[in-house]
Give the backbone structure.
Amino acid sequence: MQLNPAEISDLIKKRIENFETVTESRNVGTLVSLADGIARIHGLANAMQGEMLEFPGGTYGVALNLERDSVGAVLMGEYRHISEGCEVKTTGKVLEVPVGRELLGRVVDPLGNAIDGKGEIDYKQTSPIEKVAPGVIARQSVDQPVQTGLKAVDAMVPIGRGQRELIIGDRQIGKTAVAIDAIINQKGTGIKCIYVAIGQKNSSVANTVRKLEEHGAMEHTIVVNAGAAISPALQYMAPYAGCSMGEFFRDRGEDAVLFVPQLEQVDAHLRFAPEWDAKYIAEARACKNYPKAVLSSYPPGFTGGAARWGTPGARLCSCEFSTSDVEASIIRINVGRTTHAGASAPTQIAFIAAGFFFARAEFLRDVPFDPLLPWCFMGEEIALSTRAWTAGWDIYAPRENLIAHEYRPGRMGLPKFWGSVGRVFGRPGFNTPLMLKVVQRVKHMIGYPDSALEKLTAQGDTPVLTDAEHYGMGTERPLAEYMKLTGIDVEHKRCPAVKWCNNEELL
């Protein structure tokens, strides 16, 4: 084949004339730390508040904390494949979710991805989750009601279109049922409903969707599911995503109702360090009495929003008889001191913290679960400690904290935990029949003279001993030996300082 130089020259000129290039400027940074879905990136000097950041593997995050030399971001989705030192890029876009009528009748995650098995959603529009709300002057007065379908509610506390309404009550009394009934009642009214499920089991959400389908209510409903298994960042984002989906209809002169049941699920009070379970497995294997070893400590609190994991573990080796009206002379477990720095193995301690303990599954075979003990302030810790020890399980303080508490203020300035306790039991004293029953059970197990069998029989409290062979002491070691080692005197209600705090190992 003969090549004509003139033809080649013309072809090159045409290619040059038609050549188009797009210049793209992207800000790039380096990931310096990653813990529990919270990333800190060095660089990204031009990052914007709320901007989407691109991480390796197609994972995205949102920039929330802009500091002088770093950016704090939350990751939206799986992040186990991401490691420190990887490259992070800005996208120039704020976080947006799909909106529109295409989402009606579908179940989506907080990012708007379909999770109901009905195929992808062919949406036409997106909307940012953070936007400026209309001012007071621009808003229309509330002049139309929303009929919930419950006569008592509609008659006594009518809800207007454009207002917020809080449903408060104890557990299992039908708060969510009120919301579901209200969604069903909007059929044929033109009102669109957005139901945001946060921290619930997928099976519970599936049952809710099935109920809505049975009544033909899914045709005007969008379900946003932020299940218990997804990252806390996505759970946090779920209400904002549902609100943006509802605002699509608002901006077109239509009415929409947003339901956010169990919003308190966002405020989980425990945080776990990355790979905490694998690390605790390795820690348990380092215990002297492995495999019959229990790891336990009180998780430390967060300070200034910073996680406290990675700090030395705390030994639970001191106790006292409580004098408060709440705990009714039950043995109260206290922190002794931090684990010795540089210890070659976990340190043996005297007690289990019921809020957190880690052991092999065989533990439940030797120490069967007692359904009455997970109640607060009723001796669950001393009961677990004595049952485990007499069953041949030794208790150890982990050398490193990998779990941390995060109590956030709730109503009336109280932490959510105490607020819940007060509503259920009515502090102070919450001397309910169930609590008194559990207290007597524990005192009898530990050997309090005032809870001996003859006294329980005379008081008519022998039902507290039902199934004692299941929740009672083990047979490997005698309880009296444990009480002598810990210095606990239940007859005179005294707890001298436990010697275990002063030694690296027991005995």
The chain has 13 helices and 22 strands. Confidence is low (pLDDT under 50) at residues 409-416. The longest helix spans residues 232-250. Residues 113 and 120 are 7 Å apart (CA to CA).
